[in-house]
Specification:
By secondary structure, the chain is mainly beta. It contains 1 helix and 6 strands; from the N terminus they run E-E-E-H-E-E-E. Strands 1, 2, 3, 4, 5 and 6 form a 6-stranded mixed β-sheet that branches. The radius of gyration is 13 Å and the shape is globular. The model has no long low-confidence stretch (mean pLDDT about 80).
Length: about 90
């Protein structure tokens, strides 16, 4: 699924391909997607550790607006995204 992500506080946005985990509370932006969107990691404030099937990941919580599109359908939602830290764990 394709989506347009807007991070209002950071004044940046971009198009991202998503894989949805219907049991997840937030979406995760991979470091490459965050870089392509122009996210300045120095401006991110809420760092958290999350645990998933792949182990522990260091992330940041950021309010986001998502516009998701499927063929002939478009959904807009307010959500939170977690830009993953570019640092190696």
């Amino acid at each position: 699924m394709e989506g347009h992500v807007l991070l209002p506080r950071l004044s940046c946005s971009g198009y991202v391909s998503f894989i949805f985990d219907t049991g997840a509370d937030t979406c995760l932006l991979m470091p490459l997607d965050a870089q392509l969107m122009g996210i300045d990691y120095g401006l991110l404030e809420s760092e958290i550790s999350t645990l998933g099937i792949g182990g522990v990941s260091e992330n940041f919580i950021e309010s986001a607006r998502l516009v998701l599109s499927m063929t002939k359908r478009c959904t807009r939602t307010n959500s939170s995204c977690m830009p993953a830290s570019p640092r190696k764990n």
